Amino acid sequence: MLQSERLQTFVALGDYLRSADTRPELEEIAQRAYYKNNWFTPDNVLRALQAIANEFLTADKLNAWIQGYSPAEPARPTVIGVVMAGNIPAVGFHDLLCVLMSGHKLLAKLSTQDFVLIHFLIQKLKEINPGFDLLIEEAERLNKAGAYIATGSNNTARYFDYYFGKKPHIIRRNRTSVGILVNGEDESAFVDLGHDISDYYGLGCRNVSTILVPEEYDFTPLLRTLEPNVNTYLNNHKYQNNYDYNKSIYLINAVPHYDNGYLLLTKSDGLVSPISVLYYQTYKTQDDAAAWLAERADRIQVIASAKSSSGQSWYPGSVPFGHTQFPGLSDYADGVDTMAFLTKL
Fold first, then answer.
1. Is 326 helix (H, G, I), strand (E, B) or coil?
2. What strand order describes the sheet that includes 277-283?
3. Predicted local confidence at residue 342, as pLDDT
4. d(Cα 202, Cα 207) in Å, to the nearest integer?
5. Please, what is the end-to-end C-alpha distance for the chain in angstroms?
6. What is the pLDDT of residue 310?
7. What is the C-alpha separation between 21 and 25, in angstroms, rounded?
8. Hey, what domains does the chain have and what are their CATH numbers?
9. Could you please report the per-residue DSSP string of 232-269?
């Protein structure tokens, strides 16, 4: 199958996901995903599917992205074993897209947490283009793969290294994202930052789990701006259980913290905060902040900051608040170019 045909199949999938006519079917799938995994609320599932459709699956974006890689077709397609993540809805789709657009075959081990959505998207691709049936296989064991892409925790990465290390591979580990603030953010910036912190309940590697703030920073405007979101998050019993647990630990152990009713804010040297908790660190100068970020660069997925007067994020190399959960096709996990890896096989 030619790359142009594969590209058109993905464009057709994007059209399907964007169509108002298919909304009832997508709502049904979203409900099924929620029954399987209560972190995947229907609203979050639909948000994730629309992000895939709009950020990945348009003809212009796919063509611009794929033109940066050659050859268009591998001399000999390789079976690529992919261990998919399942922390947020359809998070494994980008790896699926890369493998198929690079001309290889996909052997996918779906996450039990995200099985419903990825299986649905695979079946829809095969429905649009039956030729994809020869290019995609779902499996529990990946022994017959010639190369691997695996996403997991720092602990599972050790197992991935052991099992997959002798063949070409990409193995991803824990990462998280950081926000950097000054004393000039307005309410709209706080609203946007709130999405970066709490969308998908903070479960993604692109969620901001730590913020850097100037010394003596006043957190009151930020926490008050986000406070009206309390029902959105506490209505999910899994999130509320985490909030209640972390709050009780801080109270029992007399850990200084702020609390706006659903989000706990505490100073910590850690980087990955628990669900319902946001860590903060202070800095004296921007050079201090840059040094702090550089020391932890191998554990940071995205840096976010407020928009400047030019409309771009003010901190170099960052994305604007509110954009961390909308990666483009070239925003590769862990900063490793998946397509470059695949096209060189």
1. coil
2. 258-259, 264-267, 277-283, 208-214, 176-180, 300-305, 319-320
3. 97
4. 5
5. 18
6. 79
7. 9
8. 3-173 (3.40.605.10), 176-320 (3.40.309.10)
9. HHHTSHHHHHHHHHHHHHHHHTT---EE-SS-EEEE-S
Mean pLDDT of 62-72: 92
CA 139 to chain centre: 23
Residue with tokens 């691997």: 148
Kind and range of the H or E element at 231? helix 230-234
Q: What is the pLDDT of residues 91-125, one digit of tens each?
A: 999 999 999 999 999 999 999 999 999 999 999 99
How far are the Cα atoms of 3, 14, 176, 281, 287 from residue 301, in angstroms, in the given order?
30, 26, 5, 18, 20
Residues in the chain: 345
Reported as a single tens digit per residue, the pLDDT across 117-153 is: 999 999 999 999 999 999 999 999 999 999 999 998 8
For the chain, what percent of residues have pLDDT higher than 90?
A: 92
Q: Measure the CA–CA gap between 229 and 117, rounded to whole angstroms.
A: 27
CA angle 42, 47, 50 (to 5 degrees): 125
3-state secondary structure of 22: helix
Contacts of 140 (CB under 8 A, 6+ apart): 109
Is pTM beyond 0.85? Reply is: yes
Q: Which two tokens stand for residue 125?
A: 């691709």
**Using an 8 Å Cβ cutoff, are 89 and 40 in contact?**
yes
